[in-house]
Amino acid sequence: MANKSQYLLEETGRLIRQTISEQEIDLKPEILQRFVQHQLIKFPGLFSAATISPKLSGTVGMANKGPTTVFSIRLNKLPLRARFVVRGEYLVPDFTSNSTPMFLEWTVPDGMRLYLMVHMQDGAPTCADQFLVAVDGSNRTYRLPTTNCYENCKLCTGQFNGRGITYADALSKAWKQLEDSDWQSDLSNHGGERGMENSKNMFRFKPLEPDGFQQMSIHSDSWELLCTKISMEFINSFIVL
Amino acid sequence: MLNVNIMVRFGTDEVHRSYPQGVTISQVLNDRELRVTLGYGDNVRALVAGVEQSPGAAVPDGATLVIETKANSKAE
Description:
The complex is a heterodimer.
Chain A (H helix, E strand, L loop, with lengths): L1 E8 L5 E8 L6 H8 L3 E9 L10 E7 L2 E8 L1 E6 L1 E4 L2 E4 L8 E6 L5 E8 L6 E9 L5 E3 L23 H14 L1 E2 L8 H11 L2 E3 L5 E3 L12 E3 L2 H6 L3
Parallel strand pairs in A: 6-13
Antiparallel strand pairs in A: 1-2, 3-4, 4-5, 5-10, 6-9, 7-8, 10-11, 11-12, 12-16, 14-15
Chain B lengths: L2 E8 L2 E8 L4 H5 L2 H7 L5 E5 L2 E2 L11 E6 L7
Parallel strand pairs in B: 1-5
Antiparallel strand pairs in B: 1-2, 3-4, 3-5
């Protein structure tokens, strides 16, 4: 064991002597392994989101802790394949309707960061769970006023086969599953009437002549008021912002 | 009357609260003012040191109560 001394002169004029003892420790691999496997490591900007789909921009982040791997894909647009109804001069979703669905893309409003989080099966490029999470400027997490989504933001994916050849391949399937999802009435009881009303104030479109639709701003003082604030240790820990 | 002083956390928000000794988890979760301040709904659970607490359990003094959203079941 070696002792080292150093002298520190503080701004207050105090002179401090620090004595440090050093001893090299033989860190066995088994000990290092046990230490590392409980560490949460995040990799922001792991690769380009365009690798998953040309419709995506930005980068994909990954969080890993032991066998648990979760990817975070930031979405600038949310694909909405849903039933819509006319309310006044706007087209708004009616998730419980039985009419023919139509496809519209909803652009994420300023101040909201929207993530598709994909939890992989332990040690395999296979999607286990997917979460749709909105985040505000203070990193609070929210559930959008949609259907097909549990209260903890976990998406209902039906018979989705999320097995990929690679992790990027599995993520491509998760994105396509979201893109092709029919936002129908499943889990519509979650937010109740207020939830369904909030969806009509959040996802608003105006028909254009001769065709097409223009997205309108949300009808609320803030988007947070239309969403449900949530907190999940899993999401809080593994989301890569 | 003796009080228990606790920290209650929901996501990134946390507040200090003082309750009469013997207050239960359920009573804290149903605290209307707390609910409005932190913004949680009905479908939540409370954890202390990572362990879910039963609704009838007494809240220990000095505890940090972490409130989490529970997953609901699928609509039928």
